Amino acid sequence: MHRFIMTACLALGLGLSGPVLAEDWALTPEETYERVQAEGDELLFIDVRDPVEIMFVGFTDVVHANIPFRMVDTDGWMEQNNHFAMPINDDFADAVGRALEERGLPEDAMIITMCRSGSDRGEPSAEYLRDAGFPNVFYVENGFQGDPASEGEHEGQRVVNGWQNSGLPWSTDMNRDKIYQAP
């Protein structure tokens, strides 16, 4: 029901008042694409993945900017998890503020974040930005690659949902003008 109300409000261009529940922060890839096509000049759509991840996985030029929420720290090997640490990008909120400014948008403009799966960085980055004073932040449910198949020929491969599997525009090419470069 909350999702229906939010979708209706978005479609009608109405703002939401009162507390927003975490599940209301999620937009499907298709909703995001439609929103960016209809009102792209009035919002900021950001890919919050590390630029190196984008280089190997793919990118959609529909995003306005790549501003990583977490970045790989090759000096921070985490023995217990058997991978590199990915601390929060200290420049994240400031970089989002700068991106809004560059687009001539206020801090309360709609911001949509997208990561690989929606859960590891998409939703947390939206919450982080809300806590940092940006009140109108959403994330792309299932992210760029989506969920892995749980069975069948493609078991373990990210082929279930997400931007890449929804027939939306994407490429293995990166747009240098949109990819984050550390200050």
SS-based structural class? alpha/beta
Distance between the termini: 43 Å
Note the overall shape: globular
The CATH topology turns out to be Oxidized Rhodanese, domain 1
User: Strand sequence of the main sheet, in spatial order?
Assistant: 1-7-6-2-3
**CATH architecture group name:** 3-Layer(aba) Sandwich
Level of helix content? 25-40%
Query: Treating each run of at least 4 consecutive H or I residues as one helix, how many helices?
Result: 5
Poorly predicted spans: 1-21
Quote the beta fraction.
5-15%
Topology, number of strands? 7
Mean pLDDT: 86
Main pleated sheet:
5 strands, parallel
Question: In CATH, what is the homologous superfamily?
Answer: Rhodanese-like domain
Structurally, the number of domains stands at 1
Secondary-structure element pattern, one letter each: HEHEHEEEHEHE
GO molecular function, one term: transferase activity
Keywords: Signal, Transferase
Organism: Alkalispirillum mobile
Pfam families: Rhodanese
Task: Draw up the topology in text.
Elements: H1 2-12, E1 26-27, H2 29-39, E2 43-47, H3 51-57, E3 65-66, E4 73-78, E5 83-85, H4 92-102, E6 110-114, H5 122-131, E7 137-140
Parallel strand pairs: 1-7, 2-3, 2-6, 6-7
Antiparallel strand pairs: 4-5
